[in-house]
Design brief:
The chain is mainly α. The protein has helices at about 10-15, 20-45, 45-65, 95-105, 110-145, 150-175; strands at about 70-75, 75-80, 85.
Length: about 180
């Protein structure tokens, strides 16, 4: 006689509410990011240096494409008409934003396959937005330098975080689980 097979009972993880799954995965990803960045990536500096240099060069290229005289100098310095305009440092290279965006998408309950294309496309969109942001800051420094500090810390931060939020909202609309309703 064959043994009676019962369907697999849901695991403890499956019985957790989606919000708790999200919070636990997000906390775990944050811990991995914190250890990975603060322990290895940040102190090493090569990824931040490469990304800062790349953003400065791409922003200078965008400005040249728009008809401005822009170039770069060592240490991720963007020049306008040969004068210093913007230094792209590690806090402004976008790496933390890419991790923040990707972490949310990974942690949010939903199908894994779309995450494989949505995360790279979102990171690419954030990268391009950062190029525009740095170019705009260079123009701001060149033409109205008194407002650079405000725009750098508030205006452009608002724009970037609002864009990330819009990407998250789009992800939730497309792939979020419908809310449970009480009948």
């Amino acid at each position: 006689m064959l043994p009676h097979l019962t369907p697999n009972a849901p695991s403890r993880w499956d019985r957790l509410a989606p919000r708790w799954q999200f919070l636990l995965v997000a906390a775990g990803l944050y811990l991995v990011w914190l250890i990975g960045y603060e322990g290895f990536i940040g102190p090493d500096g090569r990824l931040d240096t490469w990304l800062s240099t790349n953003i400065a060069a791409a922003s200078a290229g965008l400005l040249r494409l728009l008809g401005f005289t822009a170039s770069t100098a060592p240490n991720s310095l963007l020049l306008m008409d040969g004068r210093p305009a913007v230094i792209v440092g590690a806090p402004c290279d976008g790496l933390v934003l890419y991790a923040l965006f990707a972490g949310f998408i990974v942690a949010f309950p939903g199908p894994p396959r779309p995450k494989l294309w949505f995360i790279p496309l979102g990171v690419l969109a954030l990268y391009l937005l950062n190029i525009v942001r740095v170019g705009a800051l260079a123009l701001n420094q060149h033409y109205a330098h008194r407002s650079v500090d405000f725009n750098h810390h508030y205006t452009f931060s608002f724009v970037v975080y609002a864009f990330i939020c819009l990407l998250w909202v789009q992800w939730v609309r497309w792939y979020g689980l419908p809310a449970a309703t009480d009948a």
